[in-house]
Specification:
The complex is a heterotrimer of chains A (343), B (331) and C (324).
Chain A: E1 13-23, E2 32-35, E3 38-41, E4 45-56, E5 61-65, H1 72-79, E6 87-92, E7 95-96, H2 102-111, E8 112-115, H3 129-140, H4 146-159, H5 176-188, E9 194-198, H6 206-223, E10 226-230, H7 234-240, E11 243-248, E12 251-257, H8 258-263, H9 268-275, H10 315-319, E13 325-326, E14 332-333, H11 336-340
Parallel strand pairs in A: 5-10, 5-11, 8-9, 9-10
Antiparallel strand pairs in A: 1-4, 1-6, 2-3, 6-7, 11-12, 12-14, 13-14
Helix pairs in contact in A: 4-5, 5-6
Chain B: E1 3-16, E2 19-32, E3 36-40, H1 47-54, E4 62-71, E5 74-75, H2 81-87, E6 92-95, H3 99-102, H4 109-118, H5 125-138, H6 144-147, H7 157-169, E7 175-179, H8 187-204, E8 207-212, H9 215-221, E9 224-229, E10 232-238, H10 239-244, H11 249-256, E11 307-310, E12 316-319
Chain C: H1 2-29, H2 33-38, H3 44-54, H4 60-72, H5 86-121, H6 126-140, H7 143-157, E1 170-172, E2 175-177, H8 182-215, H9 218-225, H10 230-268, H11 273-282, H12 286-314
Antiparallel strand pairs in C: 1-2
Classes of the chains: A alpha/beta (343), B alpha/beta (331), C mainly alpha (324).
The complex binds adenosine-5'-triphosphate (2 copies), iron/sulfur cluster and magnesium ion (2 copies).
Chain lengths: 343, 331, 324
């Protein structure tokens, strides 16, 4: 397999201070507001990512969790180059990729693939499965013969547990789980190293989720894949990840190995999140109840983005943005309370 | 425990152009006063249809084709329209899945609460508003007096769902049917809403039917579980029994498919092969047999009836599976 | 909200600008005003002098700017037939048309809402099927046919209603109204009915389909589950939501109704703007044509703008920022 860096200590993906801002103010007229009786022009922006930094080592399954709208999908898309960042850097295999021209980016587009949440929307409904799978292969390997392309497609189809007969059918003829297999096959067909999977199982039923998770774990074993896995189901994240990043309102709160995170969460938000996971057969409810409401990323709170809901917030939290700091055991946490040892 | 609700052999069909489709096939269960029951199953299993059928509110091509529903001893499935209307929102309340779609976007929260009271009780505006404020406070909505005059879009999803729960509580019902009340919400908010349900059930002794696809959520909240598959209840029992010692192969597969926490990390999950059949193509015999690891010859020939299953501590439940038929040899 | 209203108003000006451009283009290209003013018996030099005087030798853009300037002051040129400012002629005839449109709109509203709502609530009932079938027929019969059939039945055959003209009118502060006399009302019946016959079927169908969609929604199902009485669900919960799209479409349709007055007024010899327009076309009265275009365009724009703003006020979910 073409993994150019066997050096396990060097990160495969390295993200530094990544920011992404969406301008949602619309046309000039929409930007007008009336303030104190005077007409003013104001831009409305969504701060979807705020100086996010992390590394992913080869072979890892790095999960990103957080509530809806916290920026998980934006992070995945920015990392893979679907959105240009508004600040910060993305390095892949030691090379900075966020500034590359689209031609120079081409080889990276093969090495990094994405799988989307909605298996209904992400497959072209008018194309047969064979065409869907052949297209990226032809694009990235123009020198491949038709036979080679066909063989490769069949091989991948079998690997995702599909049938060769599927190839002649259209996406709408498949169930959700089958479609998600096809999306995964489409990502695998170009033999990538790194896959960003954005909620690949959220639209599926439990009995089907297990099929897809197994498929992803098998592919990881067989091909030495590295995953960035975006999810909101924490028990699934706990099951398949090696490391987990917890996001809140576009910022990272905590990044830790999966055992450490679930055994000993540091950040107050992580604690609340983990305590909220429904567990089979757990009877008592020891949920940490947060106060307040989730703010919008349009008007970010000052200081720690979490301070309005945090049970431990003090004056410093309102004022100063906490840095993502390394703890003794390697856990990264962005919290003044943790830093000061009062948590 | 006296029976609050008894659903007996309830069958719901949808009259489609291609013929009748049976969405609910002879569903039977009972609920005591103050009892909490979880109705779980995959998408399309018929959970929502069951919930709506209880208050006789099946959408148009659908109709109740058989069976009956007894509420506090009264057969409510045969009541005339006006009489069942007096029960809906009054003695039995519902909470729907998507809080963004459930409230009427052009009416204020206050209007939508007051009308619910006035539909069932002869009270004035100010008295109704006072009750509304009280219930909003009960579901932890801050400054409820002001909130009454706001429209649904001015609230977050979690707050809307709490408002919907407050509306459900307005007339102090004896039963709440909550259809996926937290599926559209984040885990932290889900936990909050579930705690709220538990708190309310304990305070008021009202019954709860919690419809969800998430076994873990019901297992934390309810005392009994009924598992649905392709329009039928395939297993029913006390929550801890069903979760720890599932008897029906479908329930067993479902539970094994869930990630089990720390010790099993990274291992392959147990998967149930195939998918649930669409209701127009339910296989003969046991509807689960093509996916069942224990299927026997009889399974494809004859549908299993509900069979009693026993637990070591003397408790009992029900499983619709030939494995528990004493006449077919034991297991 | 401010941005929303400003945007609507700016859009309105933009549309008016486009309409005025069309008006100018017509004026500039169709018919030589000098001929219309002078006739044939004038020398070439004299014509040239008039051309110069009228600014017809200026560059096009200067002419256009002058045209806009004058239009802004209500000067739309001189009607060649009436020998009066075109704007005055228009204003003189406008009340007749506006009253006709108003009565037709009332008929549409009063009939389409109950019929559409009924057909949505009871789609399977015979009466609903009759209404829906009738509305298809109504859509497909041309308006002049309905008008002529009405005239034949009620005027010629039964002799109940007058077949042309406005009847007795009363002048109230420069506005000649037919609303104050019985005769005026009798004269209004046939024209307004045939004018409303164009939009009525469309409105019934629109209201029915919108209402049926709303009746399928989650919040209506929820209203049933709350045990509300059916009339409250239909006429408050469902109808209020049905109204929103109907208001928007209604504004556009009202504008189209004004255009259809040309036909109706010609059939009934109704002395309004539509009638005037046909006359102006026959007499190649360019100034009057342009004035008609500008006036009717303005009415449509004003109506649409007002409707949009009402919509924004009625609908609590119109986003403040205006993003959709
Ligand atoms: N293309 C876009 N234009 C404008 N705003 C956007 C865009 N994409 C995302 N956003 C905003 O950025 C924020 C983060 O969105 P994102 O989709 O990344 O969240 P998420 O964590 O993936 O949420 P979910 O769990 O619901 O998928 C949200 O507030 C969203 O409204
Ligand atoms: N209006 C309808 N017309 C036809 N069939 C319907 C209608 N409503 C429901 N059904 C059928 O009834 C079956 C059960 O639907 P139901 O909504 O109860 O599923 P569910 O278990 O609630 O699933 P979900 O988890 O997706 O909500 C579905 O398979 C569907 O085919
Ligand atoms: S920094 Fe302060 S507000 Fe933020 S999580 Fe830590 S204690 Fe809470
Ligand atoms: Mg997302
Ligand atoms: Mg449902």
């Amino acid at each position: 397999m073409n993994a150019p860096f066997s050096d396990k200590t060097k990160p495969l993906l390295s993200v530094r201070d990544l920011s992404k801002i969406f301008d949602i103010s619309g046309g000039f007229l929409d930007q007008l507001t009336l303030k104190n009786g005077r007409l003013r022009r104001e831009k409305t922006t969504v701060k979807a990512l705020n100086r996010v930094s992390f590394d992913i080592a080869p072979g890892e399954t790095f999960s990103v969790v957080g509530e809806s709208g916290c920026g998980k999908s934006t992070l995945g898309r920015t990392v893979i180059g679907l959105y240009p960042p508004d600040g910060g850097e993305v390095h892949y295999g030691g090379e900075r990729i966020d500034t590359l021209s689209s031609r120079r980016m081409l080889p990276f587009r093969r090495r990094m693939q994405m799988v989307f949440q909605d298996p209904y929307a992400s497959l072209n409904p008018r194309k047969r499965v064979a065409a869907i799978l052949e297209e990226p292969l032809r694009f990235h390997h123009p020198d491949m013969t038709a036979d080679e392309v066909g063989d490769r497609v069949k091989e991948v189809m079998e690997q995702v547990g599909g049938d060769v007969q599927w190839l002649t059918r259209l996406p709408h003829e498949f169930s959700g789980g089958q479609r998600q297999r096809i999306s995964i096959a489409r990502a695998l067909v170009v033999d990538p190293e790194f896959i960003v999977a954005d909620e690949p199982i959220s639209a599926l039923d439990v009995s089907i989720q297990a099929q897809i998770l197994n498929l992803m774990m098998d592919a990881r074993e067989q091909r030495g894949l590295t995953y960035m896995f975006i999810a909101h189901d924490l028990s699934v994240v706990e099951h398949i990840s090696t490391r987990v990043a917890v996001m809140y309102l576009g910022s990272l709160c905590e990044v830790a190995d999966v055992d450490r995170l679930f055994a000993d969460p540091r950040h107050p938000y992580t604690r609340a999140l983990l305590s909220a996971i429904p567990r089979l057969g757990k009877k008592k409810s020891d949920h940490v109840r947060l106060k307040g409401e989730v703010p919008t990323p349009i008007n970010l709170p000052t200081g720690c983005v979490f301070h309005g809901r945090c049970l431990y917030a003090d004056e410093r939290c309102v004022r100063e943005i906490p840095e993502l700091l390394k703890q003794d055991d390697g856990v990264l946490a962005a919290c003044h309370g943790v830093e000061e040892g009062r948590l | 425990m006296s029976a609050l609700l008894q659903v007996q052999d309830l069958t719901v069909n949808f009259a489609l152009r291609t013929g009748d489709l049976t969405a609910l096939n002879g569903v039977t269960f009972a609920l005591g006063e103050g009892e909490r029951l979880g109705l779980v199953g995959e998408s399309g299993a018929g959970k929502s249809v069951a919930g709506f059928a209880i208050i006789n509110l099946i959408g148009k091509p659908g109709y109740i084709a058989g069976g009956r529903v007894l509420f506090q001893g009264e057969e409510i499935s045969a009541l005339p329209e006006e009489a069942i209307r007096r029960i809906r929102g009054h003695r039995i309340s519902m909470v729907f899945q998507d809080p963004m779609m459930t409230l009427n976007p052009v009416l204020t929260i206050g209007t939508q609460m007051v009308e619910t009271l006035q539909a069932h009780r002869n009270i004035g505006q100010s008295e109704a508003e006072a009750i509304a404020v009280d219930k909003l406070r009960q579901v932890h909505i801050p400054s409820p007096e002001k909130r009454l005059h706001q429209y649904p879009h001015e609230f977050s999803g979690g707050m809307r769902q709490r408002i919907i729960i407050a509306i459900a509580l307005l007339n102090d019902p004896q039963l709440i049917i909550a259809d996926e009340p937290t599926t559209a919400l984040d885990v932290t908010i889900q936990a909050e809403i579930m705690d709220l349900f538990l708190e309310l059930c304990r305070q008021t002794r009202m019954g709860l039917i919690l419809i969800t696809h998430d076994l873990a959520v019901v297992s934390e909240t309810t005392e009994k579980i009924a598992v649905m598959y392709a329009g039928e209840i395939v297993e029913e029992g006390r929550t801890e029994d069903v979760v720890r010692r599932p008897r029906h192969p479908y329930t067993q597969g479902l539970i094994a498919a869930l990630p089990q926490g720390d010790d099993q990390r990274g291992t392959r999950l147990n998967q149930i092969p195939g998918t649930m059949p669409t209701l127009t193509r339910i296989p003969p015999g046991c509807s689960f047999h093509p996916r069942c690891p224990h299927a026997m010859d009889v399974c494809s020939e004859r549908a299993p009836g509900p069979l009693p299953v026993a637990y070591p501590d003397g408790g009992g439940g029900m499983a619709a599976c030939h494995l528990y038929d004493p006449n077919l040899g034991d297991r | 909200m401010v941005a929303f209203i400003i945007r609507r108003i700016v859009q309105a000006f933009l549309v008016m600008f486009i309409i005025s451009s069309i008006g100018f283009a017509i004026k500039h290209n169709v018919g030589d005003p000098v001929w219309q003013i002078t006739g044939i018996s004038v020398s070439k030099a004299e014509r040239e002098r008039i051309r110069e005087q009228l600014g017809l030798n200026d560059p096009v853009y200067i002419q256009y700017i002058n045209f806009l300037k004058n239009a802004a002051h209500g000067d739309l040129g001189q009607s060649y037939f009436y020998k009066k400012p075109a704007a005055d002629v228009i204003l003189d005839k406008a009340p007749a048309t506006l009253e006709l449109v108003l009565v037709s709109s009332m008929i549409i509203v009063v009939l389409s809402i109950p019929l559409g709502v009924y057909a949505a609530i009871y789609p399977k009932r015979i009466f609903s099927r009759v209404v829906m079938g009738g509305s298809i027929v109504g859509v497909s019969i041309p308006v002049f046919l309905i008008a002529i059939m009405g005239v034949y039945l009620f005027s010629v055959h039964l002799g109940w209603l007058p077949s042309f003209g406005r009847g007795a009118t009363v002048n109230v502060g420069g506005w000649r109204t037919g609303f104050l006399t019985v005769d005026g009302w009798l004269h209004l019946i046939l024209p307004s009915l045939s004018l409303s016959s164009i939009m009525l079927p469309l409105f019934i169908r629109l209201i029915r389909s919108e209402m049926m969609e709303v009746l399928e929604s989650d919040y209506i199902r929820y209203a049933w589950a709350k045990g509300l009485k059916k009339y409250r669900i239909w006429f408050l919960h469902a109808f209020k939501n049905t109204l929103l799209p109907v208001i928007t479409v209604g504004g556009v349709q009202l504008g189209i109704t004004i255009a259809f007055t040309i036909l109706t007024e010609t059939v009934f010899q109704w002395q309004g703007l539509g009638f005037l327009f046909m006359e102006a076309v026959e007499r190649s009265d360019t100034a009057l044509l342009v004035a008609y275009l500008m006036f009717v365009g303005m009415i449509m724009v004003v109506v649409n703008t007002v409707v949009d703003i009402i919509y924004g006020v009625v609908n609590p979910t119109v986003r403040i920022a205006g993003t959709k």
